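can u do me a favor
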């Protein structure tokens, strides 16, 4: 019965997609030629555009099937489905355009194709969202359910229990868990009963008409996974394995695929592909604008430094950036040129006697950091990111602070999430690392803009800046 329901939903979804695709093509034609846009060669024959619906429906149908857009997606996100729809539509459009080259005696409007792809993606995504939300509503009410058991009673199994309880909209009704030891039978795990041991799993699947099996064993029990799979045998159930590796996932962990082989990332950098291009473009754009605005201020500060103390205007210091590489950070000089001659590398302190009179003002207002805009343009730094530290201090920090070096997965920044939350200067390093890793884990351009806004909104003056 459940299989028939699944096939019915798949058929309805397939038919609705084809209708939306056909509507999008017709709508694109009318928008191009009947919405007031200039038409140089007159309105073409609508019948010829209708004939293209035949290859369109075939191409889009195969593409949507190929991208798995009709598989059950109870646990999948809306965003991932929109991404798959976009990929399928773009690839299908490229195939369609290549086919139209064979119509040498007739030229189709490029704008129609552009409108078609855009309308297609928007309308199909909205229709899928509506469809999924209706299904989720029905599942919350107890309809269209799948019955599941979890193999395991440890922390991974309890995590699955909690997740399923938090999301009733996925329509997975958990009947209980299956233990790996006889003594656990009859007890409970996470508030659900331990039904039996995994040795009787096949009998449970048949007798309870179970549709899904979650294998969530602890790391010590992972050797039993092969045995559990052999016990399930050829029963027609969905099998999902939750690896007990989350304690080792330190930064943006996830699963990807290479040549059909699943790969589990324990830690990764968010800066790759388009993310790197977007962030770098934003850095160059905003840093150039900021330099144009503050150039008169920087020139005035440079003159004041020259007039009030001996030594260079700019101060250069080695700092560690992305990937552990070092670079020379730029600042307006705020201390005497011999500040570390007798002490060596030390942190600045409140009422530091090494500061010049002008330097006290520059450091308390963070104006001494303005030359780092040139570091941003050069590519050593970003506008937003973890603040870079001196290598001489880092060697000590990494010994005492877990995961300290993970902050170098992101390019160093002039400001950061830790700084706008007050963790700068001589403050709790653990809290600073916690905020830095949170930033890297949740990075987005919107997050960067929020941090820049908070930097301006809260002002550059900070009680820990000295």
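np, heres the sequence
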């Amino acid at each position: 019965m459940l299989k028939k329901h699944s096939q019915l939903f798949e058929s309805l979804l397939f038919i609705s997609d084809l209708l939306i695709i056909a509507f999008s093509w017709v709508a694109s034609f009318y928008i191009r030629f009947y919405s007031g846009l200039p038409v140089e060669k007159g309105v073409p024959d609508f019948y010829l555009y209708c004939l293209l619906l035949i290859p369109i429906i075939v191409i889009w149908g195969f593409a949507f099937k190929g991208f798995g857009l009709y598989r059950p997606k109870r646990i999948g996100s809306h965003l991932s489905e929109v991404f798959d729809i976009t990929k399928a539509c773009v690839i299908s459009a490229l195939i369609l355009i290549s086919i139209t080259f064979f119509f040498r005696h007739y030229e189709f409007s490029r704008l129609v194709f552009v409108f078609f792809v855009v309308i297609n993606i928007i309308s199909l995504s909205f229709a899928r969202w509506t469809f999924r939300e209706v299904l989720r509503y029905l599942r919350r009410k107890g309809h269209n359910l799948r019955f599941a058991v979890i193999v395991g009673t440890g922390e991974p199994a309890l995590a699955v229990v909690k997740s399923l309880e938090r999301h009733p909209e996925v329509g997975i009704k958990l009947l209980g868990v299956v233990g790996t030891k006889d003594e656990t039978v009859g007890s409970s795990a996470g508030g659900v009963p331990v039904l039996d041991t995994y040795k009787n799993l096949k009998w449970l699947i048949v007798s309870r008409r179970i549709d899904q099996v979650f294998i969530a064993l602890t790391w010590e029990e992972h050797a039993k996974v092969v045995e559990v799979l052999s016990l399930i045998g050829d029963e027609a159930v969905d099998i999902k394995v939750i690896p007990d590796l989350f304690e080792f996932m330190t930064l943006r962990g996830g699963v990807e695929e290479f040549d059909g082989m699943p790969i589990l990332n324990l830690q990764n950098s968010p800066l790759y592909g388009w993310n790197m291009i977007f962030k770098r473009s934003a850095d160059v754009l905003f840093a150039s604008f900021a330099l144009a605005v503050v150039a008169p201020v920087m020139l005035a500060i440079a003159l004041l430094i020259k007039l009030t103390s001996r030594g260079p205007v700019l101060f250069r210091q080695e700092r560690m950036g992305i990937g552990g590489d070092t670079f020379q950070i730029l600042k307006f000089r705020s201390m005497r040129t011999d500040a570390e001659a007798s002490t060596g590398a030390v942190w600045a302190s409140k009422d530091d006697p090494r500061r010049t009179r002008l330097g006290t003002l520059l450091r308390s207002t963070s104006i001494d950091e303005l030359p780092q805009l040139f570091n941003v343009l050069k590519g050593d730094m970003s506008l937003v990111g973890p603040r870079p530290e001196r290598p001489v201090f880092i060697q000590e920090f990494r010994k005492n602070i877990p995961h300290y070096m993970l902050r170098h997965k992101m390019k160093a920044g002039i400001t950061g999430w830790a700084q706008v939350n007050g963790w700068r200067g001589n403050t709790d390093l653990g809290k600073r690392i916690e905020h830095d890793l949170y930033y890297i884990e949740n990075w987005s351009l919107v997050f960067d803009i929020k941090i820049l806004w908070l930097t301006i909104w809260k002002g550059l003056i900070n009680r820990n800046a000295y």
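The radius of gyration is 30 Å. hope that helps!!
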